[in-house]
Design brief:
With 86 residues, the protein is an alpha+beta fold. The chain has three helices and two strands, in the order αββαα. α2 crosses α3.
Length: 86
């Protein structure tokens, strides 16, 4: 992975996030998203990603951030409803 990501400090005070850990998860997702079309392999599964797409399971995010899978699911739905992700 190369390149950089411009992140505005206001992300930490965005009202969609209930705490800074949620903001950190959002930033992590942006950092892990494909910056150009690519193919990745995870546990033997092939994923063709376009720019901006992320391949991550609820389980992997919940493990990384110490959340339950239902919390991850609710968080992603809130981001979708708030038009932060599609």
């Amino acid at each position: 992975m190369t390149g950089y990501l411009r992140i505005y400090r206001q992300v930490l005070t965005d009202p969609i996030f209930r705490d800074r850990q949620e903001a950190l998860c959002y930033i992590w997702m942006a950092l892990m998203a494909a910056w150009s079309p690519c193919t990745i392999y995870d546990q033997g599964q092939k994923y063709d990603l376009d720019r901006g797409e992320l391949a991550a399971s609820l389980r992997s995010i919940s493990t990384l951030f110490g959340w339950s899978r239902s919390k991850v699911d609710r968080f992603l739905k809130r981001l979708e409803e708030g038009q932060r992700i599609t």
